[in-house]
Amino acid sequence: MYPIVLLSVLGIVVLFLGFMKSKSVLLPATLLFLVLALASNFIDWNQGKVLYFYEMLAVNNLTLAFNAIVLVSAFMIVAMTRGFQDQEEAQPAEYYGIMLFSLVGAFMIIGYEHLIMLFVGIEILSVSMYILTGSDKSNLRSNEAALKYFLMGAFATGIMLFGIALLYGATGSFNLTDIQSYVSIQGRGVSYILYAGLLLLLIGMLFKVSAAPFHFWTPDVYDGAPTIFTTFMSTIVKTAGFAAIFRLLSHSFTPIYSFWWITLAAITVLTLLVGNIIAVYQNSFKRMLAYSSISHAGYLLIAVTSLSPQTENAILFYSLAYSIATISAFGVLMLVSKKKALEGQVDESYAAFNGLAAQNPLLAFVLAVSMLSLAGIPLTAGFWGKFFVFGSAVERGLVWMLVVAVLMSAVGIYYYFRAIIAAYLKEGDIGKIRIAPFYRIILVVATAMTILFGLAPGIFEKLL
Amino acid sequence: MYTLLLIVLPALAALLTLGLGGRPGHARQIALAGALAELIVAVVVWTQFDPAQGFQFGFAFDWIASAGISFSAGIDGISMLLIVLTTFLVPLIVLSTFGHSYSKEASFYALILFMESALVGVFVATDAFLFYLFFEAALIPVYFLAAIWGGENRIRITFKFFLYTLFGSLFMLVALVYLYFQTPGQHSSALTALYALNLSPAAQGWVFWAFFLAFAIKMPVFPFHTWQPDTYTESPTPATMLLAGIMLKMGVYGLIRLLLPIAPVGLAEWGWVAIVLSVTGIVYGSIIAIQQRDMKRLIAYSSFAHVGLMAAGVFSNTLNGLQGALIQMLAHGINVVGLFFIVEIIFSRTKTRYLDHLGGITQRTPHLTVYFMILLLGSVALPLTSGFVGEFLLLAGVFEHNPWLGAVAGLTIILGAVYMLRMFQKAMFGPRSQAAETFRDLSLSERAVLVPLVIMVFWIGLYPATFLKLTEPAVSQLLRIVNG
């Protein structure tokens, strides 16, 4: 609850700070606010389940942990913006303000207890993203992406609202606990309206986390948006979205598991196939990461579909590992493509990394570790993420799904390694890239976390 | 805690090499010192090791405590043998590079040492997930060794190798995760817990195939070998030595440590397919080896044929077969590293590995000829050399299992002699070729590599009991688990 209040207020403060002459105060202020939010987040730690806002929002250790992942990711991403100083038409105050507001939306959908809260949260998050996607106003692709995202997103929101309405019609309540008691009393005898409502609601939410076949917006939007906001979307929206889906299904709809698991299983498999196979054919690294984010949605969906005691941990750990690795991958991409852009060529393909290791060993190493982690190679956090996800599937007896996932992770290794090969084995002339000290710290910390969680995933458990 | 030291020491030496190996020539000295230190520790462990006692010098830390996954390792007879092999070969591999200067030296030697760390880890792990972790971790250094310092087509070929072997081990991961969740109560991934499982025959069949795929690709067993000849040929020789000398043994070790005891019923049901594939590989690999003109490729195929016999011996599920496989792992590691080194020596002087361009080298190089001949005879299993003991036991094991297959597998001795002697004849004898005109005999550092190898060839050949006694209690113990 506290970070929601805090960031709502501080977001406005950031907007007002924008009136000051010196823009240089914005970045430190935003970072400070994020740290404050992170600290306030833990006020409710170990208090058990606490309800706020007329029982519309619930807080427990799980939601707080998700909040923390979102906040840490946001901190890293904001730190990498470097005050938007090298973008001409940038409006840093607005960007930071919107980012903070969007986090409020994320917290709401992580801890919602009431479907209206879910809806409002998703809208806050989405509208912020529409704006940020189109923030590069003079760029045609950015504008196209924003429009596309907005149109598709509005449509998905409509479907979701329809679903919520049907659920209300069937159960007479927006409250998750009420819905849960209705479903468990009725069992499989619930009215068909509820089934339809659940499916529509799920479709709306799956759209937000870009699961196939609702993923068509993802590559264009990720590709067109400024890279920094792509990073924001692919980590924070995804983490929060999965927390929301998991909350909905685990909280209210376990009694009718046998109804929805087949649908979700089909979507899971489709998402894995689409994400991984199309990623193989990409030449643009950024677009590859877009498809890779689809494929990771697939792995996370495995955990949700299996809904075993392991799932909670699996989603948490996976989101964390995925977010850190994605942030460092995009972080390296931004530096490299900026350097290329200064030399007059826009290049976000794999070839942009050619010869990276020769003069920029740190960047090459950061890139390599993040790719290894996304590919799920042992001794990185990504491996344990996959491991816990696979574990939850086996616990539910979904071994066949595991086999699909494993085949697809073999495919994944192919496209992730292309970046490593470009950086280490191909010849190329990039030249020395200057990295701002703070930026460097973020990259090093992210890489260190990936390796640390890879060596000792037990640490994570101790933190919880 | 010796076990932990064995795992950590090479990694520390690798970091040291990276940190201090800036000046040319420094890195290799630090790496050699590190590898020798590891060897000394291994020898100390060996002298204190008691084969009759099962796992020793072990340690266990909680890793993911709530999930029953621990970081635990220990050494039994089978592990001890492979540790001896690894720690004995790595210093020699490092030493073998002294005549050659590699770009980015520090990274090169550091990768070799990281590889050693992971290999030792595989051989001592007593937790299934720890085993998997090291099994995969060993792949990454050798991939970079081959992909950065390899030949012309290195990027494409090593990528295939990497994907292929990783693909196989993912199936092992599936099997391990599955097995882990079958363990009762608070799950555990300790090997002993997995051995104790009572799986249904159908489940054992799946587990058998998942493990088989992982290890068969690693070794490789026919028909999963297509990555191997190209990779061995294109890799820089030290990487080839690591691949053929030690990494291949990870596959055989995995069969012995995981597949046999965890899926004995699967083995009883499907083992025959695996043996037929292995035996096919022996004959197939040998016949292709006869056709080769590139010496490195020829030895690559010979290695493929030899590992087929080891696999067949393991699948025969007999004491002879297993003991033979173990001693052959040792012998093959030594022979193949020696042979690859000799090819490297010839290549560094003549700039060619093609048999057509070579010939008449003997006339100028009495020392090289003798060492080459001894290693070669070891490889073709002449009695009193290292290869004989292993192949004899292996063939005996396969024969016990099925006489017909034993007879076909026996072709390896004849075919092996054909391709090896053909290579020797074409390269060393005959009229002196242009390439051999200015051939220098062995340098001191080259001899320093070959002498220990040759001593081992005779040691294993003349007194194999040293090694057989080391492994026998562990193997009998294992067979008791397998045959219930």
TrEMBL record, chain B:
Keywords: Membrane, NAD, Translocase, Transmembrane, Transmembrane helix. InterPro entries: NADH4_N, NADH_Q_OxRdtase_chainM/4, NADH_UbQ_OxRdtase, ND/Mrp_TM. GO terms for cellular component: endomembrane system; membrane. The chain crosses the membrane at residues 29-47, 78-99, 106-124, 130-149, 161-181, 206-227, 239-260, 272-291, 298-319, 325-347, 368-398, 404-424, 444-463. One of its GO terms (molecular function) is NADH dehydrogenase activity. Residues 67-120 form the NADH:ubiquinone oxidoreductase chain 4 N-terminal domain. Residues 125-412 form the NADH:quinone oxidoreductase/Mrp antiporter transmembrane domain. It is found in: Endomembrane system; Membrane. Belongs to the complex I subunit 4 family. This is NADH-quinone oxidoreductase subunit M. It comes from Rhabdobacter roseus. The lineage of its organism: Bacteria, Pseudomonadati, Bacteroidota, Cytophagia, Cytophagales.
